[in-house]
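Two proteins follow. First one:
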Amino acid sequence: MPQVDRHKKRTVNIEFIAVEDCSILPYPERFTMIFITSGRLKGILNERPISISAPGILCLAEDDHVQIHEKMNVSAQSFSFDPEFLNTNTLSETKDHFPSGPRIQTGLSLFQSNHLYNGVPRVTEKAYPLLFEWFFVLGMEVQAQSDDLWVCRIKKYLIQILGLLEELNQNSEHSPVDVVLDYIHTYYPEKITLEELTKCVHLNRVTLNKMFQERCGNTAIGYLLAHRLKVASDLLTHTDMSLNEIARATGFEYDTYFIKQFTARKGMSPTTYRTTSRKFSGAQ
């Protein structure tokens, strides 16, 4: 059921279910992520057979057709959100809904029926612990509403979860570059060195960077910086997190370094980008 924000006068159309039994799916007027932490689930999704073994995630849109035929010792949690939740919350605190504005686009391919990985995104062994942590904290924030920025933090974790799943799906061939991309998309909030990336695939830095240049038009570390700034741009547009919080969430040790790199790459400061992106997107 929708959450009543006890800090502000509004209803937040999200729901976290700590014990999801998968008996009534999909939920109406919702996007739903079901995080399967143990067991196996089999069924039919939009006339296509699916089989998900833990750890796994099932992503459903409201108009999906799903039938669960078999559940073997399944333990799962779910997070559901109204599509309007993807619209950025403005500074108004008196309305009881989220107005139109910049819209989160990250991860929407996971809920599109014509997408290759519709419904069952790829979860790697390395990505699982981070996804589990983010999903757990997201659920805790829904339940606790610890302060007046709880919705902001939920959007942060939603952007990170959907972004990681989408990136993993786009790099499924498992060439050396794909392996490093998986590593970057999973661990970008942490400190990453070029030496760590070369050890992932047992290549020297010259060979790895040459392969990255051919595939991505950038060096491995250059790609890492670009990806961090991509996530940071989403957080600037769709949350009210401080610059220091965004810097730490995207792998920049100091907010001053984050501001310097963002300004150099984007041609404007993070604060200006936040104001401009919200104004421009809201006018569309």
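Second one, unrelated to the first:
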Amino acid sequence: MSPVPATIIARRAQLDATSALGLHLPDGRDVLLVTVHGKISAFVNRCPHQGVALQAEPNVFLEAGGELIQCAMHGALFLPDTGECVFGPCQGRHLEPVAVSVDAEGNIQLAGE
């Protein structure tokens, strides 16, 4: 039986050292890819407070300092590596993680595929 090809969702080159990118996955989920200090994480694009999308403008997910993910609806702040809310009405809750990996060619793909 042949292995199933990985689902490539983006390329590493699409993200700067500190950047974020919103994507719509083939399975219907809206996700955000975020890289802060070169580490890539991915989360479902939904605030745990009210279930709304995190951004007000396309691909604007980080606060002004570029260190934390920010919900545009109410200003909640989330750690980019764990998705934990560290400020705001959902403090202590987490964004839903999406497992991704980066292959040798710089393709960001859903992990486990």
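SUMMARY FIELD: The mean pLDDT is 90. The two ends are 15 Å apart (CA to CA).
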